[in-house]
């Protein structure tokens, strides 16, 4: 009988111990949730308070703090009067933190929600800026490497973003800067094609070199490397003994760029 009572007490003790442990775990999980869930952290604040505190933090450069406020506002008041502005602020704040994936995701979300909104031009502009700056540094650092192995997908995306901005919002205050960046990106694309053409020419793949240089002349007119592309075509034709094609291309080079270094380089045959 004593053994039975001891066993019974043991199981009762274990039962209550489990209940206490479960209660402690629930409390701990609840505390963790309140610490990680931005909506819970600001549950006692109005939309106005959360928004203003987020804006102030952003202006002070306290971007981590600002993001928490904007995320909380988006979670607690998804249709509030400050929601659109806070979503725009999130794009900028993520960008300032160099968190480009989150910034792009925030811009995409804004464009989906407000495709023709009064500030959607900013979302398109920031998409382009993020794609541009994320890839521009890479291009600058590797300007003299073999461009035939470079991936310019990011810059192409930036170009499309800026182009959409100009299409949908031609009178936007961001349009002039977007247009200049598009010109710069086109110059990079043209330089890329020329680098590839030179790569082929150096390996005596003259037909491939001529084709690549021709791409520059046809599709990247008014870029600074067009004279060099024409000169490379002249050299390629000469290497293949296509004398008539070489002369025709040389005439085009002389007619359009008579004072260029490229024309001086190939000269009269």
Explain this structure.
By secondary structure, the chain is mainly alpha-helical. The protein has 3 domains: 39-113, Tetratricopeptide repeat domain (Serine Threonine Protein Phosphatase 5, Tetratricopeptide repeat, Alpha Horseshoe); 115-192, no CATH class; 204-269, no CATH class. It has 13 helices and no strands. The chain has helices at residues 2-36, 38-41, 47-59, 63-76, 83-96, 100-113, 120-141, 153-168, 175-202, 206-219, 226-239, 243-256, 261-266. It starts with a helix and ends with a helix. The model has no long low-confidence stretch (mean pLDDT 84).
Number of helices, where a helix is a run of at least 4 consecutive DSSP H or I residues:
13
How is the main sheet built? none
Structural class, from helix and strand content? mainly alpha
Stretches with pLDDT under 50, minimum 5 residues:
none
Overall mean pLDDT stands at 84
**How many β-strands, per DSSP?**
0
**Domains counted in the coordinates: how many?**
3
SSE pattern? HHHHHHHHHHHHH
Helix content: over 70%
Quote the beta fraction: under 5%
Rg from Cα = 31 Å
Distance between the termini: 118 Å
Q: Which outline best applies?
A: elongated
């Amino acid at each position: 009988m004593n053994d039975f009572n001891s066993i019974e007490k043991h199981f009762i003790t274990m039962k209550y111990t489990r209940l206490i442990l479960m209660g402690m775990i629930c409390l701990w999980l609840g505390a963790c949730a309140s610490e990680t869930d931005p909506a819970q952290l600001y549950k006692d604040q109005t939309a106005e308070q959360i928004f203003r505190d987020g804006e102030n933090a952003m202006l002070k450069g306290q971007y981590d703090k600002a993001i928490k406020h904007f995320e909380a506002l988006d979670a607690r008041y998804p249709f509030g009067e400050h929601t659109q502005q806070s979503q725009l602020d999130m794009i900028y704040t993520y960008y300032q933190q160099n968190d480009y994936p989150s910034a792009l995701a925030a811009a995409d979300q804004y464009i989906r929600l407000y495709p023709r909104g009064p500030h959607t031009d900013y979302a398109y502009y920031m998409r382009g800026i993020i794609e541009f700056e994320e890839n521009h540094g890479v291009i600058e650092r590797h300007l003299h490497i073999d461009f035939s192995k470079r991936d310019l997908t990011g810059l192409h995306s930036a170009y499309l973003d800026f182009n959409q901005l100009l299409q949908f919002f031609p009178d936007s205050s961001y349009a002039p800067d977007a247009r200049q960046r598009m010109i710069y990106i086109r110059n990079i694309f043209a330089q890329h094609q020329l680098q590839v053409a030179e790569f082929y020419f150096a390996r005596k793949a003259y037909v491939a070199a001529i084709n690549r240089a021709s791409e520059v002349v046809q599709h990247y007119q008014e870029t600074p490397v067009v004279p060099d592309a024409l000169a490379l075509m002249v050299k390629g034709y000469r290497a293949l003994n296509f004398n008539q094609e070489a002369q025709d291309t040389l005439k085009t080079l002389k007619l359009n760029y008579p004072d260029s270094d490229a024309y001086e380089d190939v000269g009269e045959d």
